[in-house]
Task: inverse folding
């Protein structure tokens, strides 16, 4: 049986910035449109955290039963290591998706935007079929695009819309930035796993692009949010506070461009997620001041 520590590791708390940052960004842009609503923001946060935790356990389950985690560079997985039964991990994943669905319905009830139930259904389906089902899209090179869409436009603009009943340029910019940061995290993760993914037949975008082009893609994605900061700052000067997050991406860029591999890329995932969170917070403060 897996220990409590192993279950906590399975939650993969280090991925939570990818869920928290888009809600902060969406709530900040809603506030800029005079529509901030604390209860809706908190419920949106519950949805995001439950979804990303569910994704983590669902990936653990699906990769584990396929055997793609038998040779692994990153942190140990529950199913792949044999420390937990697949059914138990699946139950936890489904429970997280259930919590996300309940919180999401509460958001729709309070906001009155019932048509967004379609977005919720697509988000849960996307979370499952990333590595689940007979033809997971994460095994076919579509993972980064899906992450961009779900953690960018869907999360940021969805959070903004349910609070402000509108979408504006600042929201779209924040959505692109969050999507780019989230995709960069996945690119770094898949860059690390290129050798083992090739061995197991997992055709991620990194496997398809190859090592060099994957590194170029990471740098492009991680710098894209700062172009958004520049453009937003032309209209709302305090939004330039987003540049404080640039300090957190310097080390990851160095590691990626100098050719680090394997476990030495783990700090890249951590620092990219933290940069995403700091960018969202700093930009939120800038928009509030502006």
Result:
């Amino acid at each position: 049986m897996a220990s409590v520590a192993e279950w906590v590791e399975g939650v993969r708390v280090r991925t939570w910035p990818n869920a928290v940052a888009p809600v902060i960004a969406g709530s900040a842009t809603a506030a800029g449109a005079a529509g901030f609503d604390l209860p809706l923001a908190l419920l949106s946060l519950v949805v995001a955290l439950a979804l990303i935790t569910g994704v983590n356990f669902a990936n653990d389950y699906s990769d584990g039963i396929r055997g793609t985690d038998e040779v692994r560079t990153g942190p140990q997985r529950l199913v792949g290591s044999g420390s937990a039964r697949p059914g138990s991990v699946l139950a936890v994943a489904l429970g997280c998706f259930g919590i996300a669905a309940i919180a999401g319905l509460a958001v729709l009830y309070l906001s009155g935007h019932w048509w967004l139930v379609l977005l919720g259904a697509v988000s849960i389906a996307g979370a499952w079929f990333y590595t689940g089902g007979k033809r997971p899209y994460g095994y076919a090179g579509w993972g980064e695009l899906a992450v961009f869409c779900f953690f960018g436009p869907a999360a940021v603009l969805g959070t903004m819309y349910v609070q402000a009943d509108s979408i504006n340029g600042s929201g779209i910019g924040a959505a692109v930035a969050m999507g780019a940061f989230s995709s960069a995290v996945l690119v770094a993760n898949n860059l690390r796993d290129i050798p083992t993914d090739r061995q197991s037949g997992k055709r991620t975008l990194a496997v398809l692009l190859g090592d060099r082009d994957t590194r170029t893609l990471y740098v492009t994605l991680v710098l894209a949010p700062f172009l958004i900061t520049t453009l937003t700052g032309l209209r709302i000067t305090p939004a330039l506070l987003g540049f404080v997050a640039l300090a957190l991406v310097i080390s990851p860029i160095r590691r990626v461009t100098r050719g680090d591999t394997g476990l030495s890329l783990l700090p890249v995932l951590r620092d990219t997620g933290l940069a995403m969170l700091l960018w969202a917070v700093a930009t939120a403060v800038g928009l509030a001041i502006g």
Observations:
- Residues 38-66 form the longest helix (29 residues).
- The two ends are 53 Å apart (CA to CA).
- The domain at 13-289 is CATH 1.10.600 (Farnesyl Diphosphate Synthase).
